[in-house]
Specification:
single chain; 273 residues; alpha/beta; Rossmann fold; 2 domains; two-stranded antiparallel ribbon; 9 strands
């Protein structure tokens, strides 16, 4: 009983059977050449299906009792390794790998941030999570600060919807499979990454009625009008109504106004943010 309460406190909703897992795996790119990490395998339903398609499966389970049960269950499966650890504290070895997991909903943000920003980052990650959170990360239907900050380095999209009855216990929210795919070439140069993050943060977090007013210290009205026409957005657009591509276009224009001299460069960043 205590263990059940603990899992509920962590918002653990396990998939009931292998059927939905196979459908989710078919929507992924995980195959016989891949090393696949699983976060919070629980009773091993996903682990077993991953073992059928991946070259090697590393399942990281925080709960010692569940981990012991998994070790027994997979003791004769040659390509499965069970690690008793907290994924948020676990250091992934520096190698090419993918992630496929049904993650605790109350740890979604922390897990996604680690996947995106703590190296080595995966080539791809497939995460079952609450639909509302997935929409925030993917910028669907409208971009968020989180999605705009991540997308120069990752493609993020919802690839499949699940039924509430696919889970046990049944959640009170809708769930989806989110794909996070590392771009082969970043859309922002590493030397511009800091400036890009500050620029986007300024755009989303400076409280004004529109971006035209927010960026008034940056772009003159004729420049903003020109950008509005070229990038195809309304003059009084708000941050969430710009597409990611439009944010990139704004940044490229802003970047051209930043001097390449380092001292002036830093000064300009500080003056804007």
């Amino acid at each position: 009983m205590a263990k059940t309460k603990d899992r509920r406190a962590l918002a653990q909703n396990f998939l009931r059977s292998s059927g939905p897992v196979r459908s989710l795996l078919e929507a992924s790119s995980i195959g016989p050449r891949d090393i696949a990490y699983e976060i919070g395998p629980g009773r091993g339903i996903i682990t077993a299906e991953l073992a059928r398609v991946a070259r090697w499966v590393i399942a990281i389970e925080k709960d010692p009792d569940l981990a012991r049960g998994l070790c027994v269950k997979f003791q004769n499966v040659h390509n499965v390794q069970i690690i008793t650890n907290d994924f948020l504290r676990y250091q992934v070895p520096d190698r090419k790998y993918k992630i496929f997991a049904n993650i605790p909903y109350n740890l979604t943000a922390e897990i996604v941030r680690k996947i995106l920003y703590i190296p080595p980052v995966p080539v791809e990650a497939y995460l079952v999570m609450q639909k509302e959170a997935a929409e925030k990360f993917s910028g669907s239907p409208g971009e968020t600060q989180f999605s705009v900050l991540a997308k120069p380095w990752f493609e993020i999209r919802i690839v499949q919807t699940l039924r509430r009855t696919d889970f046990e216990p049944m959640p009170s929210v809708d769930s989806v499979l989110l794909q996070i795919k590392k771009r082969p070439c970043a859309l922002i140069r590493q030397e511009d990454a800091f400036l890009y993050r500050r620029f986007v943060h300024y755009g989303f977090c400076t409280w004004k009625n529109s971006l035209k007013l927010t960026f008034k210290p940056v772009f003159t009205y004729p420049q903003w009008k020109h950008l509005s026409r070229d990038l195809h957005f309304p003059l009084d657009v708000i941050p969430s109504k710009l597409t990611f591509e439009q944010w990139l276009g704004l940044f490229e224009c802003f970047k051209q106004r930043v001097p390449r001299n380092k001292q002036l460069y830093v000064k300009q960043v500080a003056s804007v943010t």
